[in-house]
């Protein structure tokens, strides 16, 4: 599988030259590949797939670097990796957490290279009453409190930035409007993994996706997890969703609810 990581923020690539399927995993704003690495390794160990977890521009260093980046930087970095994977694989599954979910949707809306989507608490809105004022606020307030580490599992951290740069969030907010207008073009099947308690992304993002995607998404309710569910109690259920997407399993309309130990009913 390659050498162990020397830095928790480094990208992760596990390449299988004979793999027909690749999985692209995208982290959220102020986060890093760390949020996906355990699940990525698990899927790569169990299935003949190539896995890529890129580090999005401005992340993995200090929050001031993120303040100088914007949505286009993140989108085109993810798109470049998607195109690289698609060039050497028959199918590509894209998964995203939070802002990474928005990027995954945008890739599916603006390209034909995405065969399935697994979205974990995707953000298609910035849930803040002052969101409309972010462009102006960013001129005077460089950063606000951290939005990371919304995790129910004790002792777990996502190693996100200690501050949230306002300009970066303003860029995401602007881009989300365009994304919402493009949702009609998402043809890939979508699995929504939604935490029962989420202190970062409110319920209107999921509600909007239910009513605006051209195909009804499959939903998995993560009863014991908060926003960073890839590191939380129900991470195994997200792993099941990834495996199902890789296997191109039929996506039932019924909601799937994990057992209280974090296992999905299929386990």
Describe the 3D structure:
- The protein is α/β, with parallel strands linked by helices and 267 residues long.
- It has one domain: Alpha/Beta hydrolase fold, catalytic domain (Rossmann fold).
- Helices cover 35% and strands 16% of the residues.
- It contains 8 helices and 9 strands.
- Strands 1-3-2-4-5-8-9 form a 7-stranded mixed β-sheet, sandwiched between helices. A two-stranded antiparallel sheet has the order 6-7.
- β8, α7 and β9 form a beta-alpha-beta unit.
- The longest helix has 18 residues.
- The radius of gyration is 17 Å and the shape is globular.
- It starts with 11 loop residues before the first strand and ends in a 21-residue tail after the last helix.
- The relative contact order is 0.15.
- The N terminus and C terminus are likely disordered.
- This is Alpha/beta fold hydrolase.
- InterPro entries: AB_hydrolase_1, AB_hydrolase_fold, AB_hydrolase_sf, Esterase_lipase.
- Pfam families: Abhydrolase_6.
- GO terms for molecular function: hydrolase activity.
- Keywords: Hydrolase.
Compute the number of structural domains.
1
- By CATH, the topology is Rossmann fold
pLDDT averaged over residues: 90
Overall CATH class? Alpha Beta
* E-strand count: 9
Note the gap between the termini: 26 Å
- The oligomeric status of these chains comes to single chain
Q: What is the topology, as strand order, of the major beta sheet?
A: 1-3-2-4-5-8-9
Q: What's the alpha carbon Rg, rounded to whole Å?
A: 17 Å
Give the overall shape, derived from the CA principal axes: globular
- Taken as a percent bin, the fraction of beta residues is 15-25%
Helix content: 25-40%
* SSE order: EEHEHHEHEHEEHEHEH
What does the largest sheet look like? 7 strands, mixed
Q: Would you identify the CATH architecture?
A: 3-Layer(aba) Sandwich
Uncertain regions: pLDDT < 50 for 5+ in a row?
A: 1-6, 257-267
CATH superfamily: Alpha/Beta hydrolase fold, catalytic domain
- Counted by DSSP, the helix tally is 8
Structural class: alpha/beta
């Amino acid at each position: 599988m390659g050498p162990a990581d020397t830095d928790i923020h480094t990208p992760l690539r596990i390449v299988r030259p004979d793999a027909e399927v690749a999985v692209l995993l995208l982290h959220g704003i102020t986060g890093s590949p760390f949020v996906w690495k355990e699940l990525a390794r698990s899927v790569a160990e169990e299935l003949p797939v190539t896995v890529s977890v890129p580090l999005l521009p401005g992340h993995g260093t200090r929050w001031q670097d993120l303040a100088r980046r914007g949505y286009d930087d993140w989108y085109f970095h993810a798109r470049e990796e998607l195109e690289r994977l698609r060039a050497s694989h028959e199918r590509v599954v894209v998964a995203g957490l939070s802002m990474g979910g928005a990027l995954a949707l945008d890739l599916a809306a603006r390209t034909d290279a995405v065969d399935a989507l697994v979205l974990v608490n995707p953000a298609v809105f910035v849930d803040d009453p002052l969101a409309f004022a972010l462009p102006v606020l960013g001129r005077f307030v460089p950063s606000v409190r951290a939005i990371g580490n919304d995790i129910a599992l004790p002792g777990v951290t996502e190693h996100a930035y200690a501050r949230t740069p306002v300009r970066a969030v303003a860029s995401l907010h602007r881009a989300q409007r365009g994304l919402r207008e493009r949702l009609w073009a998402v043809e890939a099947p979508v699995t929504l993994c939604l935490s029962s308690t989420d202190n970062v992304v409110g319920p209107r993002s999921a509600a909007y996706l239910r009513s605006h995607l051209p195909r009804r998404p499959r939903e998995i309710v993560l009863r014991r997890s908060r926003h960073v569910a890839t590191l939380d109690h129900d991470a195994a259920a997200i792993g099941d969703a990834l495996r199902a997407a890789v296997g191109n399993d039929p996506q039932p309309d019924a909601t799937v609810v994990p057992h209280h130990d974090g296992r999905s009913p299929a386990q």
